[in-house]
């Protein structure tokens, strides 16, 4: 039996070493591909900037390169990819600024962004949250940077671009609006709150991506009992970085003041009855289609600073309007 245990330990160690080695090799290969494509881009730019032959090839340079390189090396040298290789050197002239965490597919998506601040944000956020290429595309399509930047001052926008969205306090969790386009619910819709809740959980991976990094799902219709009466919180999460429960209530109809009072009660219950050593005070987020700022201001007067009301929408945001707001903020002195 001892020999068997020793052999199994050996076998397990070999398997682990092999799997780790494979992963390291794949990561190294992806990194080398990025470096190679960047270097090719440098050759193209340097050629364009000097040399008498440039005038001869002119605008057909990339077409000629694509034809000749594809003939010798096959895939990877179509004109589109050569354009991105060239652009990668122009946008990232300092090779050290290219993160080891970014694949060539990530970089292509970043190079498609014209605005430097937006590109920097998505680059930092991709690394922070370890987005796949598909997740990066989704966040770009839903204008995440513009949504976050819309509620910031100029300094806040610049910080987003420089560092990404850092969650250090409860208010950092918020997005306004939240976008649930992944539910594919056409307008006008007639869902009940229960149906919306069900659809969100059926698309939990996409929902967690929209909520942001650090959320762990705890339960739905989480029952609490106060004075022998039962209440249910729509969705309960635990945030790993803030070390606190996050309670979410969904509202289809117009938000009422008693909805805010109910969430405040939920927060009080969790602070007293669900508290464990090391936990921070719970956070409550009411997601509503219709948010009256004045009502929210009056209804939350004197209440916990951990209670927030945000809008959600079932379709992609108006990017032009968000971009106009961003321009206004950036023009501020």
Description:
54% of the residues lie in helices and 14% in strands. The protein is α/β, with parallel strands linked by helices. It has 3 domains: 19-112; 113-171 and 318-333, no CATH class; 178-316, 3-Layer(aba) Sandwich (Trna Endonuclease, Chain: A, domain 1), CATH 3.40.1350.10. Strands 1-6-5-4-3-2 form a 6-stranded mixed β-sheet, sandwiched between helices. β4 (244-251), α12 and β5 form a beta-alpha-beta unit. The chain is globular. The protein starts with a helix and ends with a helix. The mean pLDDT is 90.
Summarize it:
The chain has 3 domains: 19-112; 113-171 and 318-333, no CATH class; 178-316, Trna Endonuclease, Chain: A, domain 1 (3-Layer(aba) Sandwich), CATH 3.40.1350.10. A hairpin with a 2-residue loop joins strand 2 (215-226) and strand 3 (229-239). With 333 residues, the chain is α/β, with parallel strands linked by helices.
Key terms for this structure?
alpha/beta; Trna Endonuclease, Chain: A, domain 1; 6-stranded mixed beta sheet; 54% helix; globular
């Amino acid at each position: 039996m001892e020999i068997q245990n020793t052999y199994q330990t050996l076998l397990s160690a070999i398997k682990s070493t092999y799997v780790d080695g494979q992963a390291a090799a794949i990561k190294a290969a992806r990194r080398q591909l990025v470096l190679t494509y960047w270097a090719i881009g440098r050759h193209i730019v340097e050629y364009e900037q000097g040399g008498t032959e440039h005038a001869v090839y002119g605008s057909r340079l990339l077409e000629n390169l694509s034809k000749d390189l594809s003939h010798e090396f096959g895939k990877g040298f179509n004109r589109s990819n050569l354009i991105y290789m060239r652009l990668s050197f122009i946008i990232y002239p300092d090779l050290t600024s290219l993160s080891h965490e970014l694949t060539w597919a990530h970089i292509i998506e970043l190079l498609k962004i014209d605005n430097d601040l937006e590109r920097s944000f998505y680059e930092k956020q991709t690394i922070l949250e370890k987005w796949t290429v598909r997740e990066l595309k989704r966040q770009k399509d839903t204008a995440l940077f513009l949504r976050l930047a819309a509620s910031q001052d100029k300094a806040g926008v610049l910080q987003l671009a420089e560092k990404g969205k850092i969650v250090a306090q409860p208010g950092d969790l918020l997005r306004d609006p939240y976008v649930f386009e992944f539910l594919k619910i056409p307008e006008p819709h007639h869902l009940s709150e229960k149906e919306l809740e069900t659809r969100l959980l059926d698309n939990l991976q996409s929902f967690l991506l929209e909520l942001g990094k650090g959320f762990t799902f705890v339960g739905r219709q989480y029952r609490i009992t106060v004075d022998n009466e039962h209440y249910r919180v729509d969705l309960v999460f635990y945030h790993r970085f803030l070390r606190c429960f996050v309670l979410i209530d969904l509202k289809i109809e117009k938000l009422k003041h008693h909805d805010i009072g109910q969430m405040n009660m939920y927060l009080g219950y969790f602070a007293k009855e669900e508290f464990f050593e090391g936990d921070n005070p719970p956070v409550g987020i009411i997601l509503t289609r219709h948010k009256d700022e004045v009502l929210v201001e009056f209804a939350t007067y004197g209440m916990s600073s951990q209670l927030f009301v945000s809008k959600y929408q079932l379709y992609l945001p108006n990017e032009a309007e968000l971009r106009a707001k961003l321009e206004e903020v950036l023009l501020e002195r």
